[in-house]
Amino acid sequence: MTVVAPTLRLERKLLAEFDLIISLDEVGRGALAGPVAVGASVMDAAGCRRRVPEGLRDSKLVTEKRRPDVAARAAAWVQASGVGWASAAEVDDGGIMRALGLAASRAIDAVVALGASLDGALVILDGNYDYVSRVHSAPLQVRSVIKGDRDCASVSAASVIAKVARDDHMSALHVDHPAYQWDRNKGYASLEHRAAIREAGLSPFHRASWAIADAPTLF
């Protein structure tokens, strides 16, 4: 199957109306353990004239071996980037949509801290639901874009940056919790992960409301 590369077609169109685009995408939404993460990438009119990095795709379409290199080149290509996090406890306390909103809000704050201005900015959010506006402290202009991670290069950049950051985080957690093999499954409901939950129970990093040993395998 031929995979079509993302473009800046939508971003260029939107930058005729807005000064800046902040693109967001989430990773870790369906995991049993670990945080949910949202990547943010910043694109302006000058950035839209630069060539999209070779190999940039939605993170799910980039092999694990290639992702770190693609993420590094994506981060160098956009004007700024950042990752926001919401912990497993926050997922349990407020639900996944609330946690996604918290992570997205923190990702926006991260790029604002690097100099991005929300005045005249549009937030592009992959998917069909705006989970960030109700959470962020400042008013936002948000546009949800279905399959934005596949079609919009700036969202693809946010996707792969967030994926590499979260995978690294889960591999680091694996050191102290090797039974769950998070270095391999990254907290998702693999057979080995479910077996470890049955054997060892839950860690402090599990989403206690989700960690059902016999949940369907997600990959």
TrEMBL record:
Binding-site list for a divalent metal cation: D25, E26, D126
Superkingdom per UniProt: Bacteria
Record's keyword annotation contains Hydrolase: yes
User: Is Metal-binding set as a keyword in this record?
Assistant: yes
Family matches, as InterPro entries: RNase_HII, RNase_HII/HIII, RNase_HII/HIII_dom, RNaseH-like_sf, RNaseH_sf
EC number of this enzyme = 3.1.26.4
Spell out the subcellular localization from the entry: Cytoplasm
What enzyme category does the UniProt record give?
Answer: hydrolase
Q: Which residues form the RNase H type-2 domain?
A: 19-219
Recorded catalytic reaction(s): these are: Endonucleolytic cleavage to 5'-phosphomonoester
**Cofactor(s) for this protein?**
Mn(2+); Mg(2+)
Keywords, A to Z, come to: Cytoplasm, Endonuclease, Hydrolase, Manganese, Metal-binding, Nuclease
Cofactor annotation remark: Manganese or magnesium. Binds 1 divalent metal ion per monomer in the absence of substrate. May bind a second metal ion after substrate binding.
Q: What does this protein do?
A: Endonuclease that specifically degrades the RNA of RNA-DNA hybrids.
Family note: Belongs to the RNase HII family.
Q: What is this protein called?
A: Ribonuclease
List the lineage, top down. Answer: Bacteria, Bacillati, Actinomycetota, Actinomycetes, Micrococcales
